[in-house]
Specification:
With 182 residues, the protein is an alpha+beta fold. It folds into two domains: 70 residues, no CATH class; 95 residues, RNA polymerase sigma factor, region 2, helix turn helix motif (Rna Polymerase Sigma Factor, Chain: A, Orthogonal Bundle), CATH 1.10.1740.10. It is built from six helices and four strands, in the order E-H-E-E-H-E-H-H-H-H. The longest helix has 23 residues.
């Protein structure tokens, strides 16, 4: 499997001159992270779709938290940065993999394994978020919850007495509690 970036550090255009160089230097040895200037903007007005036409849908995105990976002198700017991981299209390569095998693949840097895991657990996560946050807030929290799950996988240890779903529920519940407190 070739190494290519799948996590993107997005720098606001107004901070490009100040942050782009130091961040690119910091992540230069990480083949999975690319530092880019954020060019997309939120479109405040909905587009009308002609009859029979479909709107282009973007791939699901996980909001990642890579604050710990930043050097101390750049951590003050963390609130201005976004780390996102675009989910790869779902393929057949991991369809027979167990959950523990998927986790191991994700920990080794396989973005396709992350897509497979999300496909398997997303309904459980959505239901859990809705029960804790309500429909509107749960929809807003989904990207962040996916990122939190992927970020927390480094601490996941397979344990036959503690199923993955128990671990997953605990991660989602902590994330929901943080959203409620914010």
């Amino acid at each position: 499997m070739e190494s290519r970036p799948y996590i993107f550090c997005l720098v606001p255009p107004e901070l490009e001159k100040e942050l782009l160089g130091p961040l690119r230097k910091h992540f230069a040895d990480d083949p999975y992270v690319a530092v880019l200037v954020e060019r997309r903007t939120e479109d405040p007005k909905p587009h009308l779709v002609p009859a029979g036409g479909e709107r282009h849908r973007r791939a699901p995105v996980a909001q990642r938290d890579l604050l710990r990976s930043l050097p101390p002198k750049l951590r003050d700017e963390a609130a201005n940065l976004r780390f996102v991981q675009r989910m790869e299209p779902l393929g057949r390569r991991h369809q027979e993999a167990t959950t523990d095998e998927l986790v191991a693949q994700i920990q080794r840097g396989d973005p396709e394994a992350a897509s497979e895991l999300w496909w398997r657990v997303n309904e459980r996560v959505r239901v859990r978020l809705r029960s804790r946050l309500g429909d509107v807030e749960a929809a807003r929290a989904e990207r962040g919850s996916l990122g939190r799950i992927l970020d927390a996988l480094d601490g996941y240890e397979s344990d036959p007495d503690r199923p993955f779903t128990t671990w997953l529920d605990e991660v989602v519940d902590r994330y929901a509690a943080e959203q409620l407190a914010a």
